[in-house]
Design a protein that fits this description.
mainly alpha; 72% helix
């Protein structure tokens, strides 16, 4: 069981309190809790979107969360490999580097 999600950007609460509230209450408190998809599936979808859009700043948090939500390291590696052909090689290589950082930190 994963811990409740909270905003991974602490400065958001100080600089943009409304965005922090929406992130915590709507995104993590409602969208991530909807019964239509498992947290594991939501994590895999989120990682795929972040890799595809080259959003490396948020990727580390969501890669770690995906592992907590039951996505395996091998599945993340396979997803990144698959995405290389759709999102581009640089996006995939950057994702591999972020995944390596997450795995090494554990």
């Amino acid at each position: 069981m994963t811990t409740p999600m909270s905003n991974p950007v602490p400065a958001m609460g100080t600089l943009t309190p409304k965005l922090d509230q929406l992130t915590t209450e709507v995104l993590f408190g409602d969208v991530w809790e909807r019964p239509g998809l498992s947290k594991r599936d939501r994590s895999l979808i989120t990682v795929a979107a972040l890799v595809s859009l080259y959003r490396t700043e948020q990727l580390g948090f969501h890669l770690a969360r995906a592992l907590e939500n039951g996505v395996t390291q091998d599945e993340l590696a396979e997803a990144i490999t698959h995405l290389a052909f759709y999102a581009g090689w640089p996006s995939a290589v950057s994702a591999v580097n972020r995944l390596a950082e997450i795995v090494q930190a554990k």
